[in-house]
Design brief:
The structure is a single chain. The protein is α+β, with helices and mostly antiparallel strands and 323 residues long. It has a domain at 72-216 and 243-306: Jelly Rolls (Sandwich). Helix content is 24%, strand content 27%. It contains 7 helices and 15 strands. It has helices at 3-6, 39-53, 61-68, 77-83, 88-93, 232-235, 291-322; strands spanning 24-26, 74-75, 98-100, 105-107, 113-121, 127-135, 139-145, 163-168, 183-186, 193-194, 206-213, 248-254, 257-266, 270-277, 282-286. The strands form 2 sheets. It has an 8-stranded antiparallel β-sheet. A 7-stranded antiparallel β-sheet has the order 2-5-14-7-8-9-10, with no helix packed on it.
């Protein structure tokens, strides 16, 4: 040991900044949806726990309350917080949407470009967010991190750092090649995975966004719950199910069908985020859409179609051999 070390004069090692995690893009989910414990599941468990204690439990009341009252919403709060620091001209340019139905419907009636921020997503839970396209075609939706809240509303959140989302777009002419085609965008302006225009969302379609914690063993959305409010439910305090993770998985589904857009190794917390692009449009957050049921129905349908295709191919091979 040298003299400096003996006298305590050894220089402290400077902390090496940890590199931010890099997103990993896959077409297949790395985690099973059966392990989801969503915000909606948590609220149902919490209501059950409280109502049983008050001796007011009814098995159908819980889902009715959660489906009737919105648990996610849109907001113009970012615009309002910056309004005092902006000139009148900048306020006119800022993005602001018409909100209705308990702030679950966001309409771009002004035909502006910019961002409408939605609910902050609790990092201790998974989130299943169902969005219906009511009117229009062009929009972008996904999640952004807290760093984007300090930015102006006039931005394309999916194409800058901390933003991940799906862009819905249809070209005006078959001869045109869009600069920004529909598909998955993650922090850069280049489309990571292009979606065919025949498969984009049209009015009436539902886009489901799943934000799931990585490597968290959860109750699985109700596997440990009683259907009738037994005494055991009094001991299962839902607050114990809250558990944050350092990494998250983002996935997109159209009408229950896997769009093969999955991004994992994301670092939260996140906010729901919506982009409009000078075109009128209307987006609605749904509380009563049963994504799990739609997903399993679509998956069963795909299995049947694959089986029928395999059977037809086998029959064709047999008949060809006879000929």
């Amino acid at each position: 040991m040298n003299i400096s070390a003996k006298l305590g004069f050894r220089k402290k090692r400077s902390k090496v900044p940890t590199a931010e995690p890099k997103p990993v893009y896959t077409e297949i989910r790395s985690q099973n949806l059966a392990t989801l414990y969503s915000y909606k599941d948590f609220l149902i468990d919490l209501l059950r726990h409280c109502l049983i204690k008050q001796r007011l439990y009814h098995p159908y009341l819980l889902t009715l309350i959660v489906e009737f009252l919105p648990i996610y919403n849109w907001s113009n709060s970012q615009f309002q917080s910056e309004e005092s620091d902006q000139s009148d001209e900048k306020v006119e340019e800022a993005m602001m949407v018409d909100l209705s139905h308990c702030d679950t419907i966001a309409s771009n009636g002004y035909g502006k470009f910019g961002v409408a921020v939605g609910s902050k997503l609790d990092p201790r839970l998974d989130h299943v967010i169902n969005v219906q396209l009511v009117d229009g075609i062009e929009f972008g939706i996904g999640i952004c991190n807290e760093s984007q809240l300090k930015m102006t509303t006039r931005r394309d959140f999916m194409c800058i750092k901390g933003g991940y989302g799906y862009y819905n777009y249809k070209t005006k002419s078959v001869r045109m090649k869009p600069k920004y085609p529909p598909g998955l965008y993650c922090q850069v302006q280049t489309c990571h995975k292009i979606r065919k225009e025949a498969d984009i969302l049209y009015p009436g379609d539902v886009l489901t966004i799943v934000i799931q914690r990585e490597n968290v063993k959860s109750p699985g959305g109700g596997n440990l719950r009683s259907n009738f409010g037994s005494d055991r439910d009094l001991l299962l305090n839902p607050m114990r199910n809250l558990k944050a993770s350092s990494r998250y998985i983002l996935s997109f589904y159209k009408n229950g069908e896997d769009m093969n857009y999955h991004v994992r190794n994301l670092q939260g917390p996140f906010y729901l985020c919506l982009n409009y692009y000078y075109m009128e449009g209307k987006i609605r957050l749904l509380s009563d859409y049963n994504f799990r049921k739609k997903y399993h129905q679509e998956k069963a349908h795909q299995l049947r179609m694959n089986q029928e295709t395999a059977d037809d191919k086998q029959w064709f091979n047999i008949t060809s051999a006879w000929c």
